[in-house]
Write a structure and sequence with these properties.
- This protein has a single domain, classed as DHBP synthase (Alpha-Beta Complex).
- Helices cover 23% and strands 19% of the residues.
- It has six helices and ten strands.
- The chain has a ten-stranded mixed sheet, with helices on both faces.
- Strand 2 and strand 3 form a beta hairpin.
- 46% of the residues are buried.
- The mean pLDDT is 96.
Amino acid sequence: MLRPPHESVVTRTYAASDEEALSEALRALRCGELVVFPTDTVYGVGCDLWQIEAVERLYWAKQRPANMAIPILVSGPAQVMQVASEIPALFTPLVERHWPGGLSIVMRRRALVPDILCAGRDTVAVRMPAHPLALRLIAGMGGVLGVTSANLSGRQAARTAQEALAGLKGRVAIALDGGPCPGGVASSIVDLTADPPTLLRQGALDANTLREVLPALVVPRQ
């Protein structure tokens, strides 16, 4: 029986290099629990995106507003088809240049992706991280994982496991401590459902870099 989504839990912390830790993390995710882990940008907190109660738990743990969708991390470009209903023509050259890495791409979602994960929208944001542990964790969950930054909503993103647990301890089952994240800056987000493509957030990649592949990229005024 799954634990109620809004109930505290004892958080266990493991060294990310511990092979048993990966097995424990996967076991927790499959049971609908949350796991904190390092990525190439900042620490993330993930859930099994196909389990509604797990997604509810993630919103509760982060105190995330229900109108803010949860991004999806994938273990490779091919896994995007699990959650995206169509692949835009610009997707391939974009991921060939910037995946794995700090670029999230917004696309039309498949109907089977839970509404709660997408905050009722018809789109999903997907990214392939450049971090071996994150990729193993995602692959172990079938190639897709609901993941957002491991911090309370509105707070600064966490570069270390300790920073992540400052807000999430007692709300996540497991934390994998892999030391400081190498990037420390959240991913950039490009919307490929817009024509022309639009930069929704500048992060790890700046607009000029992205325009090498997307010359018509729109950058809205702040």
